[in-house]
Write a structure and sequence with these properties.
The protein has about 450 residues and is mostly helical. The protein has one domain: Growth Hormone, Chain: A (Up-down Bundle), CATH 1.20.1250. It contains 23 helices and 2 strands. The chain has a two-stranded antiparallel sheet with strand order 1-2. It is globular, with a radius of gyration of 21 Å.
């Protein structure tokens, strides 16, 4: 692979840095929310399936708003799309205040749903914009570089979740059984206090996002105006879906995101099954993100020597092996294997994204929408895993499947997802070349 073209040229370095900050911002939202599945389960006394609705509401918002976000970006500009996304993000976070006041689980879910409307605008816009800031040759490497800052924000989200939410929940200190034994009046008092603990970091996050919105209003972002008022949505969608590399990428992205959210959400349940509390399990989540970040940097470097498809295949095989260890190693070693999966997940999202959008020109705005819609895998897959966890009851070791507790067995779902990603990677480098000529009929990228 040639490395003559710079990954980021000096002329666009400032816009690159500013837009890259968004990757950390939505990483924070993702990973402060993952532990909330367990937190809401305990505070509101939910089963595993109902608790998983947190992830369903969060990731279904991406599916709902990704295509409208792409249409908005196409019709107006990347900058206006980012500003609108930040506004929706802030609104959803601030709605946690009335949700806690009304003690309504449904209101919390609605707040998360609206919050991810904003994230859908940001992700649909930021990734193709980053890819447009330079040559097609280095687009996937550039996106991997920007995405490397996502786990930094995610680390911040996990640290806040541990220090300001999980460690302060009274129901966590008491234990589920002791909490259930309390008189209803005392339970109500604790529930009000714990919901306020959950509320406050999100409200503060909303204020921070508003500050970012003001910054983006003042920033000049280089962008070529559309040459035609005709959006050409149908023609663009037809061009995209005729390409197996793109269509396969949307499918692979759906499976990957589902696997990632399952591994990062249910790490707390896996830890609890071997006697580790939610608050004490956060360091394992942080370790997973640190490993993820290391893997992202290593993977970005490896793309100088191997194709994106090859890297996907190799990392998918590694993730599958770690999943098998997670399933069949009962105890601490299984938890360590679950943490280790993050290394192999690290390159998957941006690499699939870059491969699928390479050479799409202005069609990339709509292609990005479908790839962001694929995040719906994070809504569907954890819900299925929650159903597996409920097979024997509300606990995590109530039944044994294939000789292991149901929490271990439930990781067969991520295993199947990684196998699908591996097949896509193999097809890309063996049959669908990443460096094909740009798509005929696709308008040039600005």
């Amino acid at each position: 692979m040639s490395d003559q073209a710079p990954v980021v040229s000096r002329s666009v370095l400032l816009p690159f840095i500013i837009v890259t900050s968004l990757f950390a911002l939505w990483g924070f939202a993702n990973d402060i929310t993952n532990p909330m599945v367990s937190a809401f389960k305990k505070v509101l006394e939910l089963d595993n399936f109902r608790a998983s609705w947190v992830q369903f509401a969060f990731y279904f918002g991406y599916f709902t708003m990704a295509l409208p976000a792409a249409i908005f970006a196409k019709k107006y500009s990347y900058k206006k799309s980012i500003v609108l996304g930040l506004g929706l993000y802030a609104m959803g976070a601030l709605l946690f205040y009335p949700a806690a006041r009304w003690e309504s689980y449904g209101f919390f879910l609605l707040s998360l749903y609206i919050l991810t409307f904003g994230l859908a605008f940001l992700e649909t816009t930021a990734s193709p914009y980053i890819m447009s800031l330079g040559s097609e040759e280095t687009a996937t490497r550039r996106l991997n570089l920007a995405q490397a800052f996502n786990p930094i924000g995610a680390l911040g989200g996990l640290i806040v979740a541990k220090q300001f939410i999980l460690s302060r929940l009274q129901v966590e200190e008491l234990g589920v059984e002791a909490y259930a034994a309390l008189p209803p009046a005392e339970q109500a008092t604790i529930r009000v206090a714990d919901l306020q603990v959950i509320r406050d970091p999100y409200v503060l996050l909303g204020v921070v996002v508003i500050a970012m919105l003001v910054l983006f209003l003042a920033v000049n972002m280089p962008e070529k105006a559309e040459t035609s008022g005709n959006l050409g949505i149908r023609a663009a969608i037809r061009r995209l879906w005729r390409q197996p590399r793109f269509a396969g990428g949307v499918g692979a992205q759906t499976f990957y995101v589902g696997a990632q959210i399952m591994c990062w959400t249910y790490i707390y349940q896996y830890a609890e099954s071997i006697g580790i509390s939610n608050a004490d399990a956060v360091p394992f989540g942080i370790s997973a993100l640190v490993i993820f970040l290391i893997g992202r940097w290593i993977g970005t470097y490896l793309l100088k020597f191997v194709s994106g498809g090859q890297l996907l295949l190799y990392f998918a095989v590694g993730a599958s092996v770690m999943c098998l260890l997670t399933i069949f190693l009962v105890g601490s070693w299984g938890l360590y294997a679950l943490v280790g999966i993050s290394f192999f997940m690290s390159v998957m999202f941006p690499t699939i994204y870059g491969i699928a959008l390479e050479g799409q020109g202005e069609d990339a705005k709509f292609g990005a929408a479908f790839l962001v819609m694929a995040i719906v895998g994070g809504a569907l897959m954890p819900t299925l895993q929650g159903l597996i966890l409920d097979i024997g009851g509300d606990g995590y070791t109530d039944a044994r499947l294939l000789g292991v507790p149901e929490v271990n067995f439930s990781f067969i779902l991520p295993l199947l997802c990684f196998l699908a990603v591996g097949i896509y990677g193999w097809l890309v480098f063996s049959r669908w070349q990443e460096n094909d000529a740009p798509v005929v009929g696709a308008p040039p990228r600005p």
